[in-house]
């Protein structure tokens, strides 16, 4: 099917893009990599009057560490992040996520921020960046506001973004010493969305106790989920095999997957348990190494 007719604009600044959104009176949509929006338009699940192409806005290409955060601008693609040596060295959770998002072709065009705004509960970045305790930076006519990603991701395909706002960047806290992270995903074939996936970000004390932990669950409910019970039971504990097993079981209990062609509810819930355990083991091994 071909998309419905639409107007097209390619602003050069964020301010221009916001003005265009306002002027479109709810009929405008931001176009970033187009990897979710274009298929939706082709199926006529989306029919915007105006496409606002943000690929030519230089300020949205920011991708650097600053003031204790990694700043990932709206036009940073999965592929760019995957190839970054800095991410590979200091953000292993993000590096291991980027490698398993879609396929190389989609990764070259699709953006991390576009994926977050799309808010598919089976999207990998929601779970990974909840684990990383990332912040969403939203810009609109009234200026900029920042919120935890947990608050940005509201429900299936629903975010806290207003109609005239843009997700201009996500900020990921730079992990302190003795930190590790990992993303584990099970998929039917390369390039598929997750049957289940789990992201873990971990910081240990010199004695091996858990000082900070984030656990995000993908395809485990109507929205990317934080495994709060599992996180709570790990804080202050020595991260041994017993505490990992208990936390993985708690994450599985909190998961609310639905049955579909990728698997039954019990199977998916058990995969959450297995993948949480694997991600915690991998994060701990990275710290020890
Ligand atoms: C074959 C295929 C396989 C895929 N597999 C996976 C997978 O395994 N895992 C996974 O997580 N994803 C997967 N995806 C989805 C895809 O990776 C992301 O959803 C996509 O990259 C979204 O980013 P984009 O830049 O392409 O966004 P677009 O498609 O351009 O936009 C998506 C939505 O977000 C809005 N938007 C985009 N950027 C902004 C912004 N900065 N501010 C405000 N609104 C914005 C758009 O208006 C639109 O509503 C797959 C997609 C395809 C086509």
Topology of helices and strands:
Elements: E1 7-9, H1 14-23, E2 28-31, H2 37-42, E3 50-53, E4 63-66, E5 69-73, H3 78-83, H4 85-90, H5 92-98, H6 104-109, H7 112-118, H8 124-131, E6 135-140, E7 143-148, H9 149-152, E8 153-155, E9 158-159, E10 166-173, E11 179-186, E12 196-204, E13 210-218, E14 225-226, H10 228-234, H11 241-254, H12 265-288
Parallel strand pairs: 1-3, 2-3
Antiparallel strand pairs: 4-5, 5-10, 6-7, 6-10, 8-9, 11-12, 12-13, 13-14
Helix pairs in contact: 5-8, 10-11, 11-12
Residues 29-37, 39, 74, 101-102, 106, 110-111, 113-115, 117-118, 123-125, 161, 166-167, 191, 193 line the site of flavin-adenine dinucleotide.
At CATH level 3, the topology of the largest domain is Uridine Diphospho-n-acetylenolpyruvylglucosamine Reductase, domain 3
Helix/strand-derived category reads alpha+beta
What would the principal axes of the Cα set say about the shape?
A: globular
Tell me how many strands there are. Answer: 14
Small molecules in complex = flavin-adenine dinucleotide
Strand numbers in spatial order across the main sheet: 4-5-10-6-7
Approximate strand percentage: 25-35%
Cα radius of gyration in angstroms:
19 Å
Mean residue pLDDT: 97
Separation, N- and C-terminal Cα atoms? 52 Å
H-E string: EHEHEEEHHHHHHEEHEEEEEEEHHH
Low-confidence stretches: none
Write a brief caption for the model.
With 289 residues, this protein is of the alpha+beta class. The chain has twelve helices and 14 strands.
Report on this structure:
This protein folds into 3 domains: 7-53, 2-Layer Sandwich (Uridine Diphospho-n-acetylenolpyruvylglucosamine Reductase, domain 2); 61-173, Uridine Diphospho-n-acetylenolpyruvylglucosamine Reductase, domain 3 (2-Layer Sandwich), CATH 3.30.465; 179-288, CO dehydrogenase flavoprotein, C-terminal domain (Enolase-like, domain 1, 2-Layer Sandwich), CATH 3.30.390. The longest helix is centred in the C-terminal third of the chain and has 24 residues, at 265-288. The strands form 4 sheets. Strands 4-5-10-6-7 form a 5-stranded antiparallel beta sheet. Strand 6 (135-140) and strand 7 (143-148) form a beta hairpin. 36% of the residues lie in helices and 25% in strands. Helix 11 (241-254) runs antiparallel to helix 12 (265-288). The protein is built from 12 helices and 14 strands. The protein starts with 6 loop residues before the first strand and ends with a helix. It has 289 residues and is α+β, with helices and mostly antiparallel strands. It has helices at 14-23, 37-42, 78-83, 85-90, 92-98, 104-109, 112-118, 124-131, 149-152, 228-234, 241-254, 265-288; strands at residues 7-9, 28-31, 50-53, 63-66, 69-73, 135-140, 143-148, 153-155, 158-159, 166-173, 179-186, 196-204, 210-218, 225-226. The protein is globular, with a radius of gyration of 19 Å. Bound molecules: flavin-adenine dinucleotide. Residues 29-37, 39, 74, 101-102, 106, 110-111, 113-115, 117-118, 123-125, 161, 166-167, 191, 193 line the site of flavin-adenine dinucleotide.
């Amino acid at each position: 099917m071909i998309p419905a007719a639409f107007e097209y604009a390619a602003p050069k600044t964020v301010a221009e893009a916001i003005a265009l959104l306002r002027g479109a009176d709810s009929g405008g949509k931001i176009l970033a990599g187009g990897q979710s929006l274009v298929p939706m338009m082709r199926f006529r699940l989306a029919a915007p009057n105006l496409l606002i192409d943000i690929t030519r806005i230089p300020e949205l290409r920011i991708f650097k560490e600053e003031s204790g955060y990694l700043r990932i601008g709206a036009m940073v693609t999965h592929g760019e992040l995957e190839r970054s040596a800095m991410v590979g060295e200091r953000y292993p959770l993000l590096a291991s996520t980027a490698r398993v998002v879609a396929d190389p072709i989609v990764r070259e065009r699709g953006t991390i921020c576009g994926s977050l705004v799309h808010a598919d509960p089976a999207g990998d970045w929601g779970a990974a960046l909840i684990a990383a305790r990332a912040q969403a930076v939203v810009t609109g006519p009234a200026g900029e506001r920042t919120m935890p990603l947990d608050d940005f991701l509201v429900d299936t395909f629903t975010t806290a973004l207003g109609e005239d706002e843009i997700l201009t960047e996500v900020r990921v806290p730079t992990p302190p010493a003795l930190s590790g992270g990992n993303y584990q995903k099970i998929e039917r074939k390369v390039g598929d969305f997750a049957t289940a996936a789990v992201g873990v970000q971990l910081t240990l004390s010199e004695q091996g106790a858990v000082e900070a932990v984030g656990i995000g669950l993908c395809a485990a409910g109507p929205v990317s989920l934080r495994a709060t019970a599992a996180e709570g039971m790990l804080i202050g504990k020595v991260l041994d095999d017993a505490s990992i097993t208990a936390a993985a079981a708690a994450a599985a209990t909190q998961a609310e997957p639905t049955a579909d062609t990728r698997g039954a509810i019990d199977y998916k819930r058990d995969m959450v348990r297995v993948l949480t355990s694997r991600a915690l083991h991998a994060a701990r091994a990275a710290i020890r190494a």
